[in-house]
Write a structure and sequence with these properties.
20% strand; alpha+beta; Nucleotidyltransferase, domain 5
Length: 492
């Protein structure tokens, strides 16, 4: 293996912002730096809530231009959130801005779909957690629309951006596995599900594996970025959680992970999917990871509750500085108010603090009196959800868990890390915060022979990234206090 660091660019798109990260990778080197960040602001049109995909593409190009000015790039990789897609017509033109998964067009659609494909049968094939905005339900909501009727190709968000960079067509498997159209056992598109839902199989492109070449830069994006035509683009683990999990320095089969950002993705890495009825009833998902692994997890509404609260406060001239809010939250009364973070009223953008107050009134609790108390409520409620989900995952998969790796932006949040350790009764290893970008670039580096297998990738992460160990409180009443708190909101 080369000892000279090679430079890669990772375009990492989240639900509220995107960024381009530059990474230098060598046998004992793994350094990242953010070179460009841009807003990801959804647009509400008469047709519904949409992503501004053209602004996202421009942000990627601008970021790649800055990355190319800083270093010679060996490869580019793109990851993003899951579920959402763009439709191309037969000429390759985009048929409108992609819908946002929080758009209300999927309300009630799952109930219609179950008449043709009962949930038990759908889960037995796809192993996918029920979320009302899964791709399968988005397509059902679009059935019969002129846009879908004119569509020739469906591309998930990172595949769409890769297509614009390279002209190639493909569906990277870790993101494809989130759609509800993918067979969890065979690792292929499910012809049975597609047939029963009336989805034309030709709409879905061939599958790609993480590390597969996705093409090279076309002349136009090369000109826009100043990069050489022919710069390689690599299919990484394009679902951001799959990239994040690839970079979790898991310490063995007794380790669990929480990838904490807009969502908290809470679960285990397995060799085979868990497709039992008990798993379906508990709403766990089986999504593909790197090298055929299974990300057995459940989505928990994550720090989006906090960021959306901050957005509301800032819009109403209420101080919303995060460090100050967390300091106030740490001083606030414990367990004064709690919510179920996954309650339906918290799914859509808006005034989250008022919705929290309404939830508290409805459940016989005193609403939080100030922003610090609201943040305390959110942090403790997320920790409770982490606790419940980890314990269920371990029981359903037949695993013991003795440590929790918490990665992503949430690893910066000292309060959340400590509360998660206290709630679960397990040590939390916090970091790396840049897990998604690290997983993205490590797949690119592996494709060029710079690192070895998944274990070697994780070795490099463990040796080069700063990790913090947070122990649970030794308070004798800790477990009882968290159990009683969980029971208050049905999370026990």
């Amino acid at each position: 293996m080369s000892t000279t660091p090679t430079v890669f660019a990772a375009a990492d798109l989240g639900a509220t912002s995107g960024r381009v990260v530059l990474a230098r990778v060598g046998r004992d080197t793994l350094d990242t730096s953010e070179v460009y960040r841009f807003a990801n602001t959804p647009i509400r049109l008469p047709s519904g809530l949409h992503w501004d995909i053209l602004a996202l593409y421009c942000g990627v190009l601008d970021g790649l231009r800055d990355a190319g000015r800083a270093a010679d790039l060996a490869s580019i990789g793109i990851d993003s959130w899951a579920l959402d897609y763009g439709l191309l017509d037969a000429s390759g033109a985009l048929l409108g801005n992609p819908f946002h998964y929080r758009d209300t067009r999927t309300d009630g659609v799952a109930e219609r779909v179950r008449q043709d494909l009962p949930p038990q049968e759908l889960y037995a094939t796809t192993g996918l957690q029920h979320l009302p905005f899964n791709t399968v339900y988005q397509l059902a909501a679009a059935s019969g629309t002129p846009q879908l009727d004119a569509a020739h190709t469906l591309l998930l968000i990172p595949d769409l951006l890769t297509h614009w960079l390279t002209g190639s067509i493909g569906a990277e498997v870790t993101n494809a596995s989130t759609t509800g159209l993918f067979d969890a056992r065979t690792g292929a598109w499910s012809t049975d599900v597609l047939d029963r839902l009336g989805v034309d199989a030709s709409l879905l492109p061939p599958l790609r594996q993480p590390g597969d070449p996705a093409g090279t830069l076309l002349p136009h994006p090369a000109s826009a970025t100043g990069l050489p035509t022919g710069t390689p683009v690599t299919a990484v683990a394009s679902h951001d959680t799959a990239s994040a999990v690839a970079a979790v320095p898991l310490s063995g089969q007794t380790a669990a992970y929480i990838s904490c950002g807009t969502w908290s993705l809470v679960g285990l890495e397995l060799d085979t999917p868990v497709l039992t009825e008990a798993s379906r009833a508990a709403n766990f998902t089986n999504e593909r990871g790197v090298d055929g692994t299974v990300r057995y997890l459940r989505n928990v509404m994550g720090l989006w509750l906090l960021s959306e609260s901050q957005r509301h406060w800032a819009a109403n001239d209420i101080p919303a500085d995060l460090p100050a809010l967390l300091t106030e939250a740490a001083r606030a009364e414990p367990f004064a108010a709690l919510i179920d973070p996954d309650a339906p009223e918290f799914r859509t953008p808006g005034d989250i603090p008022t919705r929290i107050a309404d939830f508290c009134v409805r459940t016989g609790q005193r609403p939080p009196a100030d922003p610090g108390a609201v943040v305390r409520c959110i942090m403790e409620s997320l920790a409770l959800a982490h606790r419940t989900t980890l314990r269920q995952a371990a029981a359903l998969a037949g695993r013991n868990v003795d440590v929790v790796h918490l990665v992503g932006g949430g690893a910066h949040n000292e309060l959340l890390c400590q509360l998660t350790a206290d709630a679960t009764g397990l040590p939390v290893l916090a970091g790396p915060t840049e897990a998604t970008a690290l997983g993205n670039v490590l797949i690119q580096a592996r494709a060029q022979g710079l690192v070895g297998d998944l274990a070697d990738m994780r070795r490099l992460v463990a040796e080069t990234q700063q990790l913090r160990r947070i122990e649970p409180s030794r308070d004798a009443g800790r477990e009882r206090a968290w159990s009683e708190a969980a029971a208050r909101v049905g999370l026990e």
